[in-house]
Amino acid sequence: MTVTAAPRFTCPPEVQAAAREHLRALLRLDTTNPPGNEGPAVDLLADVLRQGGLEPEVLVSPQGRPNLVARLAGTGARPPLLLGAHLDVVEADPARWTHPPFDAVEADGCLWGRGAIDMKNMAAMAAAILVGFKAAGLQPARDIIFAAVADEEAGCTEGSAFLVERHPDKVRAEFALGEGGGFTVHFGGRRFYPLMTAEKGLCWVRVVAEGQPGHGSMPLERSAVQKLARAVDRLASVRLPAHSGPASAFVRALAEHAPLPAALVLRLLLNPSMRDLVLDRLFPDPALARPFAAVLANTVSPTVLRAGGKTNVIPGRAEAELDGRTLPGQTTADLLRELEAVAGPDVRFEVISAAPPVETSPDTDLFRHLCATIRRHDPEGIPIPYLCPGFTDAKSWSRLGARCYGFLPLRLPPEVRYADLFHGDDERIPLDGLDWGTRVLWDALLGA
Ligand SMILES: [Zn+2]
Questions:
Q1: DSSP bridge pairs for 69
Q2: Residue 8: which pLDDT band, with cuts at 50, 70 and 90?
Q3: Angle between helices 224-237 and 332-343 in degrees, nearest 10
């Protein structure tokens, strides 16, 4: 039986229950990266899909990390869509958690565990939905490619990057959906749903200072350590120039729907000459100013310092590493120019590694469909395009031409803040929010 997409085939309760069940099982598997150990999670998903009549493939990276790819055939009316979920998680210190991070405890209406929102929930929903489509004989217009990958938290090398480089035909798609959007953000009494349309580029940089070495008993005025310390201090305390770009669309959309005075403050933020004043003086919550600052400019954070080896020897060389991030429309060379202007002539910069930003226009039928699907399930919800300051598997999928959006639907109440849970202690997912997400993703895929 072939049925075209229509919202009347709503997500059955048993599919929502299956997503809960898969998530519970996945959360009990410790996939902290490093080392990742994604094998048992891949096996679990492969079993679920195989029992549901799909034919998952497990593709193992050169370092032995398994990745799962499964394809549900669509009618072929439109090109394929890839649904990506990384199975690895960041570390969790059990001493800081209310419930153990790998026990999948159910309490206070939530399922607790590392990966509950980042992003085993996507893997659980995707597996349940693909099996649900198969059981109901539903065929979306697009092939749905489900990729459950390793190693995202350590840079994607053994996961999405491996699939893109070694198995491009298995993961090539017109669009890719992944993390970085679709969750509720409560702001100014409204419910927003940021959907990632762009993510910043990465540019890791080494700063090097050199100077005369000498004995520590006779201080030198301009040693390598002093030059480096001054440059790092300047780089860390200055905001790099503001640039308009995808973040402007996000801030403008937020301003459009926010109540006064937040709407006015947000509009001021779009004026580059007002940015610092707004962020430093007008933002009521400094914790909120930080993510806005990160999407309005290129940024660097000093993360590694290296100099000297003996207390009584003034070293001739000192170096620091900076985690740099570039806005869409900005290049590595642009960032280096900005850094040189701030740091002065006493240091030089070397690029350690770089990956360009990713940007997809929100002006597509698919993006409008995703927004409409969210609004259908939360009539007061306001979907808005969003620039992610971080890094996702979209970096890899986009290399094959996929247009990437962050769409991992999750309904959250005001007291559960996504930003606190993401890589934070007590990561958890409200079970009714997970069910909501499963229903939204079902409709989104069926009508894509
Ligand atoms: Zn993630």
A1: 57, 147
A2: low
A3: 110
Please report the pLDDT score of residue 249 as a whole number: 85
* Ligand 1 centre distance from Cα of residue 180 (Å): 8
Residue 4 is predicted with a pLDDT of: 40
Report all structural domains of the chain as residue ranges with CATH numbers, in order of start.
Answer: 13-196+358-446 (3.40.630.10), 205-355 (3.30.70.360)
Residues contacting 110, CB < 8 A, separation 6+: 116, 416, 428, 429, 430, 431
- Compute the distance between CA of residue 356 and CA of residue 208 in angstroms, rounded to an integer: 23
CA of 87 to the centre of ligand 1 (A): 9
pLDDT at 130 over 50: yes
Does residue 214 surpass a pLDDT of 80?
A: yes
Residue 179 CA to ligand 1 center (angstroms) comes to: 6
- 422 CB-contact burial (10 Å; exposed 0-12 / middle 13-18 / buried 19+): middle
Q: Which two three-digit tokens encode residue 11?
A: 């997500």
Torsion, Cα 390 396 399 402, to 10 degrees, reads: -90
Cα distance between residue 86 and residue 32, in whole Å: 12
Q: What is the value of pTM for the model shown?
A: 0.90
pLDDT of residue 74: 97
- Ligand 1 centroid, distance to 188 Cα (angstroms): 27
